[in-house]
Amino acid sequence: SRRAAALRVALLEDQLVVYFQPVVTLPDGRITGAEALVRWQHPAEGLLGPGAFIEAAEQTGLIVPLGAWVLRAATREAATWPGEQSVSVNVSARQLREPGFPSLVAAALTESGLPARRLTVEITESVAVGGGATMENLRGLRDLGVRLSLDDFGTGASTLTLLATCPVHQIKLDRSFVPDGRPDAIADAVAQMARAFGLEAVAEGVETAEQAARLTRLGYEKAQGFHFARPMPAAELRARLTTTV
Ligand code: G
Ligand code: G
Ligand code: MN
Ligand code: NA
């Protein structure tokens, strides 16, 4: 497609940028890390979000070089942060099936100087269909000392089996289950599941103080969302981290 051809050019000509959305600890709201979110600075259309191009990238396989670029950019940036903050990078099921994916991650860590413990790889429940190559890569990442997070939690399939077989450290409650005045039974159940499996519970898409308070009571350790901070350019986050440490 034309979009895919343009995206290929974007990769070659450095039109992609990484924004960072802070992840905070509950209840104090201290920035403990950030999620890397790719954007495309399109020469004609302006700044595009992933919704405009990730699907085309997946279909054409361009997600593999794009993902490698994001990984290098995000680890390089996080290595400049003043503390122990971690960076979370989204990895698609397609990337995770690639032979040698852990070596790519190891190279990004070596090049950037970022310690493995400060990198979190976000995967979704769709990796469950990836089979043996995927599981081998997940174990490879774990052996590097990288942390794994199960993103958009609750929206996919085979949740329980995956949790029992996949070496994840964290689960990220999908924003559609963040309590909004209705009963918070799902958010509660997910927090309890996290405790049962010994995993860290994070909530995303937190937009109000009321939601943050409820999530804290339910046992969520970390949160992310517009209530705390929007995704922002790297320099903006770096400035915040250096003035508040
Ligand atoms: O930034 P925004 O909220 O528009 O992101 C929308 C979706 O795009 C998110 O669900 C996120 O997981 C996905 N996304 C953002 N950056 C990346 C990336 O670098 N790689 C992959 N595979 N997905 C990404
Ligand atoms: O990986 P994931 O698809 O979950 O990426 C997070 C996406 O959610 C990003 O595109 C980000 O811009 C968006 N987002 C972040 N915080 C909020 C929020 O508080 N509310 C809503 N509606 N979207 C958010
Ligand atoms: Mn994510
Ligand atoms: Na998510």
TrEMBL record:
Coiled coil: none annotated. Residues 1-245 form the EAL domain. Keywords: Membrane, Transmembrane, Transmembrane helix. It comes from the Bacteria. This is EAL domain-containing protein. The lineage of its organism: Bacteria, Bacillati, Actinomycetota, Actinomycetes, Micromonosporales. The chain holds residues 507 to 751 of 754 of the full protein.
